Amino acid sequence: MDVKGLDFLTLDMVSIYVNAVIFYKICDPIQAINNVLDYKNSMMLLCSSLLRDTVGAYTYEDLRDHERLNHMIRRNLV
To answer: What are phi and psi of 14, to 5 degrees?
Structure first.
């Protein structure tokens, strides 16, 4: 699923445009349907918030390493 690209501010106040693609696996489909009104939208909002929090916690130089950024986002998801 594509996460809509947004402008974010880094810790050193640099404005950057970030978009993302997320892959997710539903482990309990009954719970996904019964406990959340719109699980796809919920995943999109969760990922957007996580991206904003991750980008805002680091400087631009820290975020230039894509592998490191990927690792930071994955660590925050768990």
So the answer is: -95, 130
